[in-house]
Amino acid sequence: MSESPASHEPDASRGRLGPVAIAIAAVALIATWSSGFVGAELAARARGEPVTVLAWRFLVLAALLAVVMLVLRRRWPGRRSWLRQGSIGLLSQAGYLLLVFEGVRAGVDGGTASLIAALQPMLVATIAGRVLGERATRWMWCGMVVGLAGVALVVSGALGGGGAPPWAYALPFGAVLCLGTGTVLQRRWHLDDDLLQTITIQAVVAAVAFMAVALLRGQAATPTTPEVWFAILWLVLLASLGGYVLYITVTRSHGATFVSTLLYLTPPTTMLWVWLIFDVPVTPLGLAGLAVAAAGVAIVLVAQRQAQPGTPSDG
Question: Is the pTM of this model over 0.70?
Answer without folding.
Answer: yes
